[in-house]
Amino acid sequence: MKQLITFFIILFLSGCNRNEPVSDLFRWDKQNAQADSLTVALEWAFIERDSYACISGLIARLDSATKSKYNRESADVLFWKARLQNREHHTAEAKKLLSEALARCDSSSRPYAFSRMKYLNSIISRISKGRLHYALKEYEQFYRSTDDPFMTATASVDLGHIMREVGDRKRGLAYYLYADSLYEALGVDTYHLKTSLNNASIFAEAGDSARSRSLLRNLIDNPKAKADRDFYINVLIDNWKICGDTTALISAWLLTNERGLNLIDSHTTALEMCSYLLGKGKISEAEKLCLETIKKFTPNYPLTIKAQAYKLLADIYESKGETARALTNCKIHSKLQDSLLKVHSAIEIGNIESRGEIARSEAEMESRHQIERLWTWIFVMALLMGALLVAFILMRKVQASRLSIARYHLDLEKERRSLVSSALVMEEKDNVLKSVLSDIHKMESEGKLKPEETRHLEQNVKMHLSGRQDWDHFRELFDNVHPMFHKRLKADYPELTEGDLRLATYIKVGMQGKQIARMLMLQPDTIRKNRQKLRRHLRLESEESLEDFLRTIDS
Questions:
Q1: Burial zone of 269 (CB within 10 Å; 0-12 exposed, 13-18 middle, 19+ buried)
Q2: What is the CATH number for 18?
Q3: How confident is the model at residue 8 (pLDDT cuts 50, 70, 90)?
Q4: What share of the chain is helix, strand, coil (3-state, %, to 5)?
Q5: What proportion of the chain, given as a percentage, has pLDDT over 70?
Q6: b/e code 132-146 from CB counts within 10 Å (16+ = b)
Q7: Does a structural domain hold residue 452?
């Protein structure tokens, strides 16, 4: 649970702090030019397995470049020191340095550095393979999520080691192949070569000798592999074991002697050389080399190598006809095999327990991811439901607004029709009264009416003809429907006359030219001329419609 909380803290902080990295390959946050270049140099120094002195010198220079105002080592310097001590198998010192580094690292501002320190702490801590697998899996997912292929590959390699150690070669190979593809894409040749050697060994263990041999052939001819002598010795030994290449074995033996190594790998090479010499009938040479190797064994030396050595020595004495010595070494070999069998049984039991723990942790991780995905779906569905609710509310508002606008236009149309109807009534009334006047004048000319009666009747009729009072009443009705029409026309076009405004009003309500002519008691030609004058005052182009323009006013 603690590892999980740490992982999520780092993931959250990395999302909040996107500082510029020192390079495309290594995601350390930038500090200053000298410190950044030294950080990149240290990464490559560990990749290329540079000497202890070389790396110590780089760390000392980084210390000078990052010295704080408190004149103490920075968290980065402590991390690199811890990593170097761990490489030299000084685990206690590495843990001490790393603990201090974590205490000094500001995880909120430097999440990547904090994650690297936590990662190394997981590697060197004495925890079960199951717990380590769980922690590394979390970090692998973190580095994937932050688009860090280098550390993703590193985590995949370590996960591959764990799966191989617990006996799950298939999954170990899958991790190795994935890491190898990343290292190859990134151009990290050293790690690409090492993962290729791991893959060759697993292919051989799985019985896929063709792919194993293909990888080993590529490695044995690779200049980069040859440059790393320790690594190349392992390549040569695997070529001897898997491909039966005696030339590779002899080369490995020569390189081992040349470098004066006194390591497990050098003893493995020596024993393989003994086996080869014995097979060639060079018994004395094989005996001498085997005895020299056994003398270098310590009490804590790996039982596998000890058992192999005493079995070879028994075979050598048997070949020489020294039965007693052969029997003595056979007994030692038998005891070592018994011990080895017990160890292997204990290891296998531990591996079974580790595989079970890994399976449980993966099930727990998958369950957690499923819960996270479920909550994500719930969140998305909640957002969708909220969006649908908002859309529904907005739709209702839009519909209500459209209905309100429709009602407004309907009321406007009713008012417009009322205006037109009122104007037409006025026009009809005037036509009747004009007809009455015409009849009065005719009756006067026929002598049926006296001049005094004619004048009296004419005055009464003319009092009821449409005049200023009727126009004012019509305009009052019009302004109730279009309150801003006359104000906007006067404000925008102050040169408009009262006649222009009256004509514009009649056109606005949709009256035709003949109707307007009768309303104003003018000839239709006069109305057409007045329309042209109105267009000029409104500064309309020839292609613009007067009706459309007036329709936009106060709309």
A1: buried
A2: 1.25.40
A3: very low
A4: 80, 0, 20
A5: 86
A6: bbbbbbbbbbbbeeb
A7: no
Separation of first and last alpha carbons in the chain: 68
| Of 23 and 398, the one with more pLDDT | 398
Q: What's the rounded mean pLDDT across residues 368-385? A: 90
Contact by Cβ (8 Å): 294, 313: yes
Of 64, 49, 131, the residue nearest 364 (C-alpha): 131
Q: How far apart are CA 114 and CA 101, in angstroms?
A: 9
Q: Residue 437 class from Cβ within 10 Å (0-12 exposed, 13-18 middle, 19+ buried)?
A: middle
pLDDT at residue 15, rounded to an integer: 42
Query: What count of other Cβ atoms lies within 10 Å of the Cβ of residue 396?
Result: 10
Q: DSSP letter for 20, please.
A: P
Residue whose token pair is 């109105």: 534
Where residue 475 sits, what CATH number does that domain have?
1.10.10
- Does residue 412 sit within a domain? no
- Mean pLDDT check: name the lowest of 79-93, 95-109, 341-355, 437-451: 437-451
pLDDT at res. 378 = 92
Q: C-alpha distances in angstroms, 301 versus 91, 292, 294?
A: 19, 15, 10
Q: What distance in Å separates the CA atoms of residue 550 and residue 211, rounded to the nearest whole number?
A: 87
Q: How many domains does the chain have?
A: 2
Q: Which of 92, 126, 160 is at the close of a domain?
A: 126
- The residue segments making up the domain with residue 538 are 468-555
Cβ–Cβ < 8 Å for 208, 193:
no
The answer to whether position 551 is within a domain reads yes
Is residue 108's pLDDT more than 50?
yes
Look up residue 6 and give its two tokens.
Answer: 């740490």
Q: Which residues, in sequence order, are CB contacts of 479 under 8 Å at separation 6+?
A: 485, 486
Query: Which among 99, 126, 153 is the end of a domain?
Result: 126
The angle that helices 75-87 and 33-47 make with each other, rounded to 10 degrees, is 10
407 burial class (0-12, 13-18, 19+ CB within 10 angstroms)? exposed
Is 548 part of a structural domain of the chain?
A: yes
Average pLDDT over residues 295-319: 88
Residues 6+ apart with CB under 8 A from 466: 426, 427, 429, 430, 519
What are the tokens at 233? 């010795």
Place of tokens 């008691």: 521
Ranges of H-type helices in 146-228: 149-165, 169-186, 189-205, 209-220, 223-227
Question: Which residues, including other chains, have CB under 8 Å from residue 106's CB and lie 6 or more apart?
Answer: 75, 114
* Residue burial 411-436, b: 16+ Cβ < 10 Å; e: rest: eeeebbeebeebbeebbeebeebeee
Q: Tens digits of per-residue pLDDT, 124-143? A: 988 888 899 999 999 998 89
**E strand map for 212-281:** none
- What per-residue confidence (pLDDT) applies to 498? 86
Angle CA(234)–CA(237)–CA(243) in degrees, nearest 5?
A: 130
